[in-house]
Amino acid sequence: MELRSRTRVAVAGLGSIGAGVVRELDRGIEGLALSAVASQNPENHRAWLADLKTTPQVLPIERLAEAADIVVECAPSKLVRSIVAPVVASGKIAIVLSVGALLDNEDLISLAKDHGGQIIVPTGALIGLDAVTAAAVGTIHSVRLVTRKPIAGLVGAPYLVEHNIEIEGVTEPLRIFEGTARQAAKGFPANLNVAVALSLAGIGPDKTRVEIWADPTVTRNTHRIDVDSDSARFSMTIENIPSENPRTGKITALSVIACLRKHRASLRIGT
Questions:
Q1: In Å, how far from its chain's centre is CA 192?
Q2: Contact assessment for residue 212 and residue 238, using Cβ atoms and an 8 Å cutoff
């Protein structure tokens, strides 16, 4: 299948998630073709990119929209606007992992609507977004997320620094935050994209409640969701194995790959 007959995909950010997505695209996903990548330090990646079956273009993030129909954002949250805006303004698709940044750039949603673009938030490290989205068609009374992470996955979070909370020496589970999803996203931008995704699927970032625990007894990033609605009451727990980056679970990259596979698949499962 020629490149022009396939949907072109670019990846912004080549950390553990982005690199995994790039390699899977190079191995082959039905109807898709890897066309370009962007990185803050492209020289660090040229060697392994050159070993791919088809070497993608290496472009500045602002130019990815020119080279692709879908752009996958796997970059630091501060870069989300510069990645996503050109994509949706061109009527194309942006898959956004740093979903917490959307709360500070809500006009990107209007920009996508005005130009026929689309912002897709994959399920990522969470569970049950289909159920929450379905329940939101009716009335959701409450949503609560309780996150437990190993110490290494939380060290250096802005909320901890701002409030002088030391967790390195913690020997038993310690609740370090309780508040809204919006507050969690601001205080833990590298950790709580799951909270924002959950809130956008349900009752919004100011009504979704979040607890965060620094827990030396766990080795996996653990999220529990409790939802009460007029259609169902449900609770779900997921324990994610951390990737090379302790703040991110291995399943996050797999979720992006699953999302891409749906794009041109003959059979799609899930809402």
A1: 10
A2: no
